[in-house]
């Protein structure tokens, strides 16, 4: 397995050259474009890794998987999906157009920015620091890593430049989707995106989902089966934004990307996978990471279809 992963990383590193590191959040622009790494955690507890798996990165939109779980745990699925839809989009992750033209009362899904900002507004707590503390605590638990924290530089960088997300959030406040203080909700959202980890951390989230909500390393259940099932389904249909169909055909398992270059994948009943490659394609997904997952899926016959 180790040799297979090393070969796949080296064969697919070439695809990082065609991508671009995200720079609309200035701090992310400092990432090393050629990096590519992978970590696998199987449900039997084996761990395999190759390439630049030790590099730290901010999980960005991968955090949307975690906040969706918490929002459902806090509110129940009926209420969450009354506020946020579950339909895929053919537009970019930060698109504003559907909010007005489709349904101003309901962003399309929790994996795009509008839907994720609405989702985090539903999480219990004081709406700001204490709400974020709950997200951080849950992240530490689901990764099995008590040292998980935010990258302060990335948080400040996004907070200063996040005007597109402010536009989405204020629009949703005007239509009643967001009921709390908008700046508080955005602060929590910017912090969740700045949570920092490695391929191992996101692979472990994938392993918990692949294991239907039970931590494979301790046997403890942290989310009910129905929550794991909803989250995996929405990852498969919406997790790679307007490339979700492409990813479903080529990779065939639930995946969620972030503009930091990470991709979390869950192969049901088998393993969690964490991939990192900060050079992104035009849709904001890791270009080397997508190819690496595609080949891994073929090699290990991971597709659920
Ligand atoms: N923090 C990023 C943003 O809101 C997350 C987007 C992403 O990872 N696709 O723009």
Automatic annotation (TrEMBL):
GO terms for molecular function: glutaminase activity. Belongs to the glutaminase family. Keywords: Acetylation, Hydrolase. It is an enzyme of class 3 (hydrolase). Homotetramer. It comes from the Bacteria. NCBIfam families: Gln_ase. The gene is glsA. This is Glutaminase. Its EC number is 3.5.1.2. It catalyses: L-glutamine + H2O = L-glutamate + NH4(+). Substrate binds at residues 61, 113, 158, 165, 189, 241, 259. InterPro entries: Beta-lactam/transpept-like, Glutaminase.
